[in-house]
Design goal:
This protein is of the alpha+beta class. About 30% of the residues lie in helices and about 20% in strands. The chain folds into 3 domains: about 70 residues; about 160 residues, Cupredoxins -  blue copper proteins (Immunoglobulin-like); about 80 residues, no CATH class. α2 packs antiparallel against α3.
C-alpha cells in the first residue's frame, strides 16, 4: 500500500508541474519585439545544432549498454581492439563542424544584435523607413524603482513607460547608485545600468499589448519589486498616453528628484508633466545635489593633466557615495560602519586605524602626502606651484557628457 501512495504522489507532482508549465507565458520564446525575436531564433538554432551531437550520443549510450550487456553472448567481444580510422573521423568531424557553425552564427549575431547599433529593420519583412524618427527614452535605475525621461515630449514617469508599435526606440540607460539591469523580455535582452555611465539599447515593439519590465540584477532589499509596465500602443494611443501624463503629472525638478531618489519599495506609478532642463545629464554625471562636481567636468580636468596638488580642496565636491550618510546624523558625517580607509578609523571605534598617526590623519593631509609620493620618492618641491587649484566648475545644469 505505501508504494502505491508513492506512485500516486509522484504522478500528482508530475501532472501539477505539467499544468504549471502549460499555464506559464514563455515570453522569451514568444516575444513581441523584433530584437527579442532574433535573440529567440539564436537560442533555438544553437540548441538544435547542439542536439545534433547530444541526441545521437545519448541514444548510442543506451544502445551500447543494452547490446553489450553481460547476458548477450551473441555480442562480439574483442579485447584487443584499440583503433578505427572511420570511427575517429566521425567522432571528431561532427563536433568540429558544429563548433564552426556555432562560431559563425555567434560572430554574425554579436555584430547584428549589438545593442548600441541603430536598427535597420522593423521586422523580418520591413526595413526602417528613412523618414522615421526614433523615440528617445532616458532610463534611470533608482532604489528600487524605474524613472523614465521622454526628452522629446518634456515628460517623465515612474514605473511605467509606453511606446508606439513599429517605431524604433533609442534607450539611454544609467543608474543612481548601485549597478542594475534593465530588462523587458518581450522587447530585447538585458542591458546593465551603472552609475556615472550610460549604456545604450536600440529596440522596437511590433505588437500592441501590456508587457512586464523588471530588474534582472540583484540590487538590494527592494530588488524583487523593482518592476514596471511597458505599454505597446498604436500612434493614437501613445499620443493619448502622453497627453494624460501632461494633464495629470507634476513638475520634476532637482529637489523632487532628490526625494524620489531615496530608497523605497513598491512605489506607485507617477507622472511628471514637466522636467527641469539638464536633469538627466545631472543624474548621469552624478551632480544633482548642490555643490557637487559633475563627472564630465572631473574627466575634463583629468584629460587636461590634472589640477595640481591644491586640488585636494575638491574632495568634498567629488563625494558621490555618501548621499544618505546624513540621514542618521549631521551633514558630512560618515555612514554607520564606515571603516578604514574610508574614514581612517576601525569600525565602531573612536580610535585611529593601526599605523595611522592621530596628529596627521586628517584626510587633506593624507591626500597631500600621498600625492607627493611616487615610487617611494618625494617629488621636487618646485612642482607644487606649477598648477593651481581646480576650476570651480560646479553643477552646471546645462552640462553634457563629453
Amino acid at each position: 500500500m505505501p508504494s502505491q501512495f508513492k506512485v500516486v504522489g509522484r504522478w500528482i507532482v508530475f501532472v501539477s508541474m505539467a499544468l504549471g508549465l502549460a499555464g506559464c507565458e514563455m515570453v522569451v520564446m514568444s516575444p513581441s519585439g523584433d530584437i527579442a525575436a532574433q535573440q529567440r531564433d539564436l537560442i533555438v538554432i544553437s540548441t538544435i545544432l547542439m542536439l545534433i551531437i547530444i541526441v545521437p550520443v545519448l541514444c548510442l549510450t543506451l544502445y551500447f549498454a543494452w547490446h553489450y550487456r553481460q547476458s548477450n553472448t551473441a555480442a562480439k567481444y574483442d579485447p584487443e581492439w584499440h583503433h578505427s580510422t572511420g570511427l575517429e573521423v566521425i567522432i571528431w568531424s561532427a563536433p568540429l563542424a558544429i563548433i564552426i557553425a556555432l562560431g559563425a552564427i555567434t560572430w554574425i549575431s554579436t555584430h547584428k544584435l549589438d545593442p548600441y547599433r541603430p536598427l535597420d529593420r522593423i521586422d523580418a519583412e520591413r526595413a526602417v523607413p528613412a523618414d522615421v524618427k526614433p523615440l528617445t527614452v532616458e532610463v534611470v535605475a533608482l532604489d528600487w524603482k524605474w524613472l523614465f525621461f521622454y526628452p522629446d515630449y518634456g515628460i517623465a514617469t515612474v514605473n511605467e513607460m509606453a511606446a508606439p508599435v513599429d517605431v524604433p526606440i533609442n534607450f539611454k540607460i544609467t543608474a543612481s547608485s548601485v549597478m542594475n539591469s534593465f530588462y523587458v523580455p518581450a522587447l530585447a535582452g538585458m542591458i546593465y545600468a551603472m552609475p556615472g555611465m550610460q549604456t545604450r539599447l536600440h529596440a522596437v515593439m511590433n505588437k500592441p499589448g501590456e508587457y512586464e519590465g523588471l530588474s534582472s540584477n540583484y540590487s538590494g532589499d527592494g530588488f524583487s519589486h523593482m518592476r514596471f509596465k511597458f505599454h505597446g500602443l498604436d500612434q493614437t494611443g501613445f499620443d493619448d498616453w502622453v497627453a494624460r501624463v501632461k494633464q495629470t503629472g507634476t513638475m520634476l525638478n532637482r529637489d523632487t528628484y532628490l526625494k524620489l531618489e531615496k530608497p523605497s519599495i513598491k512605489d506607485p506609478v507617477r507622472f511628471f508633466a514637466g522636467v527641469e532642463d539638464g536633469l538627466y545629464q545631472a543624474v548621469l554625471n552624478m551632480c544633482v545635489r548642490p555643490g557637487q562636481m559633475c563627472m564630465n567636468e572631473m574627466m575634463h580636468i583629468d584629460m587636461m593633466g590634472g589640477a595640481g596638488v591644491e586640488s585636494h580642496e575638491n574632495r568634498s565636491k567629488l563625494e558621490h557615495d555618501n548621499r544618505h550618510a546624513a540621514e542618521g546624523g549631521h551633514e558630512g558625517d560618515a555612514a554607520p560602519g564606515a571603516t578604514f580607509p574610508a574614514t581612517g578609523n576601525p569600525s565602531r571605534s573612536e580610535e585611529p586605524a593601526e599605523g595611522i598617526d592621530e596628529q596627521s590623519s586628517e584626510p587633506g593631509q593624507m591626500n597631500h602626502d600621498m600625492h607627493n609620493m611616487h615610487n617611494g620618492h618625494a617629488e621636487p618641491s618646485g612642482m607644487d606651484g606649477e598648477d593651481g587649484p581646480a576650476p570651480s566648475q560646479l553643477n552646471n545644469s546645462g552640462s553634457t557628457t563629453p
